[in-house]
Write a structure and sequence with these properties.
Distance between the termini: 145 Å
Shape: rod-shaped
Strand order of the largest sheet: 1-2
Order of helices and strands: HHHHHEEHH
Largest sheet: 2 strands, antiparallel
Number of strands: 2
Radius of gyration: 53 Å
Structural class: mainly alpha
Length: 325
């Protein structure tokens, strides 16, 4: 980060991300403000954990607002804005990167050990071959010395015996190295023969069975503590999100049941309305048929009376005509 950006970040921390807003305009900072670090609000910002280590993430580009961090757990928006899932995703990515580093260092350590074993095997083979060569020379010197002695060449005999003794010393030195697994090079680099191991938490290369003070120094270091905290936080977030999902599912299930209940009640209400409508229509049709029957009866009676009246009138007219005759 440039000096200018670092200064801007410091001012944002002190005065807030809206320090340059014109007077009179709203300067309220909300949880979902894009300039606010959501990781810091939820728990902690990983950018602060690995400063000046191999896992350094650089300075956080967003503002760490302590007030919002205190307000968030009390807010009605707590665990409803998706910050926890976003934080879990980022921490999981960091943990995956760390796991890759651990696997890489384990492979590197295994390769180094295999290469070291191969070199050691080759060294032993060469020294065994050297021992065989020395044995041959020693036997030859002793045979030549014996022959020189028989010929009365005392000086030559003594010279060959001394040479055989020197060769015996060289052979003894090789035997000692083979028995103690010490390479022929000197001086010996102690770090080269120290057994290494990989820290399963942060992936650092450590000396196995190192001094307790150095072990404690590693355990309290930024990388070890940082990745240890990340692992714990990942498990906590997963549990929190799982419980939140279960609660949300229960609320959704309850809402579905209530909605289905309202739908059933509406269907029953509509069915009752339709039933009442059918009853009304049936009643109206029944009344209409009754009225029709009544009208037909009335018309029939009226016809009967009219026919009867007409008949009586005709009969009367007939009587009147007969009477006049």
């Amino acid at each position: 980060m440039s000096a200018r950006n670092a200064m801007a970040a410091m001012l944002d921390e002190l005065m807030g991300p809206k320090r340059n807003v014109e007077l009179g305009k709203d300067t309220t900072v909300t949880f979902d403000d894009p300039d606010i670090c959501k990781y810091y609000i939820v728990g902690f910002c990983p950018h602060d954990m690995f400063v000046n280590t191999k896992a350094d993430l650089g300075a956080c580009p967003r503002v760490h607002d302590d007030n919002l961090r205190l307000e968030y757990p009390k807010s009605d928006k707590f665990e409803k804005l998706g910050f926890e899932r976003e934080f879990l995703k980022f921490l999981s990515r960091l943990d995956e990167d760390n796991q890759r580093r651990i696997r890489k260092n384990l492979e590197k350590l295994k390769t180094n050990e295999e290469n070291g074993q191969k070199k050691e095997d080759m060294r032993k083979l060469r020294e065994e071959q050297e021992m065989a060569r020395l044995d041959g020379e020693i036997k030859k010197c002793m045979a030549d010395a014996e022959k020189a002695g028989e010929e009365g060449l005392v000086a030559k005999c003594q010279e060959l015996v001394e040479k055989a003794e020197q060769l015996e010393k060289q052979k003894a030195s090789i035997v000692e190295r083979l028995n103690s697994n010490i390479p022929a090079t000197a001086p010996i680099d102690e770090s080269a023969i120290k057994i290494m191991e990989v820290c399963e938490v942060c992936g650092s290369m450590l000396i196995k069975n190192d001094a307790q003070c150095r072990v404690e120094e590693h355990l309290s270091g930024k990388m070890h503590m940082g990745f240890s905290k990340i692992k714990v936080t990942i498990e906590e977030l997963r549990e929190r999100i799982r419980k939140r999902d279960e609660e949300n599912e229960k609320e959704r299930q309850k809402a579905r049941e209530e909605r289905e209940k309202r739908d059933r009640e509406r269907r029953r209400s509509r069915e009752r309305d339709r039933s009442r409508d059918r009853d009304r229509r049936t009643y109206r049709r029944s009344r209409s048929r009754s009225r029709d029957r009544e009208r037909r009866r009335s018309r029939s009676r009226e016809r009967y009376r009219r026919d009867d009246r007409d008949k009586r009138n005709r009969d009367r007219d007939d009587r009147d005509r007969r009477h006049r005759r």
